[in-house]
Amino acid sequence: MEPAHSAQKGKRPDESKSETAIIMAPSDANPRGNVFGGVIMKHVDLIAGLVAKRHSGHANMVTASIDRMTFLKPVYIGNALILSARLNYVRRSSMEIEVTIESEDLYEGERALTGTAFVTVVALDEHSKPIGVPPLILDTEEEKKRFLAGESRMLTRLREAGRIPR
């Protein structure tokens, strides 16, 4: 189930996962109090880069794509934006990170799923060339399921980009 990589030691998805919370301020929103999608996407990109860096440990991380970004519910000024990110799939130099986005109304104490995103990050060396990253060690059936789903999404992305035959 693990992808074939060079002699690099593998890592488990739990070794790189991350969660963060940020309070949304007036500068993050429109005049009606709705947080801009671009602000949320910025934080999605940041946490995905952190997960990728934790996994690779050495390379420059660049975002190749953000797909299937969905906004299910609004986030408002004063809400906590809560992001949870985990590595689903690793190819040779690219990684798929799934980010779950929640908002928490800090006055009511209610949390709501507000969106999800799949971010593809590529590891580059000092010459901006793709560099190999450690394979994933998959222990649970859930991790194996996420890996296979991530592999399927990655192959679709590569086909759409014309990098592999349809």
Kindly state the mean pLDDT as a whole number?
92
Under the CATH scheme, the architecture is Roll
Assign a percent range to the helix content.
Answer: 10-25%
User: Rg, please?
Assistant: 17 Å
CATH class: Alpha Beta
Break the fold down into its secondary structure elements and pairings.
Layout: E1 18-23, H1 37-56, E2 60-71, E3 80-90, E4 94-105, E5 110-124, H2 141-160
Polypeptide structure, described:
The chain is globular. The chain has 2 helices and 5 strands; from the N terminus they run βαββββα. With 166 residues, it is of the alpha+beta class. Strands 1-3-4-5-2 form a 5-stranded antiparallel β-sheet. 24% of the residues lie in helices and 34% in strands. The model is unreliable at 1-6 (pLDDT under 50). The chain has one domain (13-160): Thiol Ester Dehydrase, Chain A (Roll).
Label this structure with key terms.
single chain, 166 residues, alpha+beta, disordered N terminus
How would you briefly describe this protein structure?
The protein is 24% helix and 34% strand.
